[in-house]
Amino acid sequence: xxxxxxxxxxxxxxxxxxxxxxxxxxxxxDAGKTTLTEKLLLYSGAVHLAGAVQARSHQxxxxxxxMELEQxxxxxxxxxxxxxDYQGVRVNLLDTPGHQDFSEDTYRTLMAVDxxxxxxxxxxxxxxxxxKLFAVCRKRNIPIMTFINKMDQPGRYxxxxxxxxxxxxxxxAVPFNWPIGEGAGFQGLYDLxxxxxxxxxxxxxxxxxxxxRVETFPHPSLAETxxxxxxxxxxxxxxxxxxxxxxxxxxxxxxxxxxxxxGSALTNFGVEPFLNAFLQLAPPPGPRRSSEGLVPPTESxxxxxxxxxxxxxxxxxxxxxxxxxxxxxxxxxxxMVYHARLDRKIRMTRPHRLFGRDRETIEEAYPGDVVxxxxxxxxxxxxxxxxxxxxxxxxxxxxxxxxxxVLRSQDLTKQKQFQKGLQQLEEEGVMQVFYSPxxxxxxxxxxxxxxxxxxxxxxxxxxxxxxKTLVExxxxxxxxxxxxxxxxxxxxxWPQDTRRLVDREGRMVMLFGSERLLAYCMKEYPALxxxxxxxxxxxxxxxPPV
Length: 546
Ligand code: G4P
Fold this sequence. Notes:
Blueprint: H1 5-18, E1 20-27, H2 33-44, H3 49-59, H4 68-73, E2 81-86, E3 89-94, H5 103-110, E4 115-121, H6 128-139, E5 144-149, H7 158-169, E6 172-175, E7 177-180, E8 188-191, E9 196-200, E10 212-216, H8 222-226, H9 230-243, H10 249-253, E11 257-262, H11 271-281, E12 288-290, E13 293-295, E14 303-311, E15 320-328, E16 331-332, E17 336-339, E18 344-347, E19 351-355, E20 358-361, E21 364-365, E22 370-374, E23 384-386, E24 403-409, H12 415-428, E25 432-434, E26 445-448, H13 452-465, E27 469-474, E28 478-483, H14 486-491, E29 498-502, E30 508-512, H15 515-524, E31 529-531, H16 538-541
Helix pairs in contact: 12-13
The protein binds guanosine-5',3'-tetraphosphate.
């Protein structure tokens, strides 16, 4: 008997959804995110680590660290997507920038994942950037798995680390395995799910999978094998199994409980059990809220949203890539889709699969996947694409800028490239650009979430658009879109330490030197609206430019 085509298509879709995991790693710089990423790729067979390690020692870069500035500074600025298969599961790892100043890009990426892995340095525990990123995950109730790294070095007592997770992040921490020894004496892990011990062997240069030997527990020879570590381990196991909190899948999926794993990404200890557990625990793509209600991933009609734009990923192509996260249905090359913001249909002619700097054309993709679309100015962050009846997904939140600076071109003959670069970087969401309302002072004012972003702008304008620039820092710390009765606005004498500007749409933006000053102005002019950009609605944008 033949299976109806509709039924077999929906079965295919359900199967593809069920085997996808889309996640990001969140961590404070230096906790080991890049190393863990490399090792996940090694275990999946996606890269030959020998090559990656070599590249790293020469330029301090994994596949996902690719821009010049990143390499020069040894930090990761832009997020890219890595896709690999492991044990029949298709894993999409969305890389997030590691430096605290690039948080906005990271925040957007976290809007496109179904779970996150939090990497902690065992000697440092929760650090400032971990907290910030965790707060974003918490807003979306993203399930989080924790990997406590660098167990091959002296670190903090594991029980203290669990307590810190609970106290600082308000999340129940449930260890799935437990370290045996630490520092130079780190031998392996006790598996709390099955009573067994996992021993690891160091490999030369850590370029290969660490061989793992499994011993049942208790085992007559263990006391001898473990030596000094045996006694403390027995006590700790008794404590953990006696008073320990049980894993609760619903609480994990709601982001209230985190399974905790220990290991050392550098020496490959614990990477394999972590990856195996990740595949089992991390959820497949889930439904997403839209203007038409929740859209389940198994909905046959295709839908997705753009969460990132990146220009000049490939110096040879000099094009812009929009990153589309697929929410539902099957994506096919050359399909016609409805572009909600432009209210028109477009053809998906050149979809790409991305792997760091590399790309290849794809024929199809499924929910959870990230597709790179070459973007001839068609897409902006937050755009929804769909087949079937129109819908749009909830907007991607924006983060208010806290740093401001005047951008000066050093080469006045290159105005065209300067303006083009500025517009493209703004569309990518690298920074916002404001202008003086009278256009007498023509130099744009940049607004960014973090100061290092200014270096990114200057460096990219020079390397990608050939324009040398300088950014002169301003002392303002806040921006608000101000609207209200035009006569009232025209008559205001703004206090010192404020600056009146306009955005690209001609809407009035005020910069303030302090929170107090903003509070004063809001009190002084109660009839006016002082809004963040994401609060500025359609009616406000229609108000005449000041
Ligand atoms: P990040 O992406 O979170 O910023 O961290 P990254 O992986 O780059 O790791 C930061 C440093 O910590 C690197 O050392 C890395 O080798 C080291 N590291 C990562 N995981 C482990 C681990 O499990 N054990 C130990 N002992 N070290 C680890 P580096 O000296 O800054 O760089 P490199 O010279 O090794 O490239």
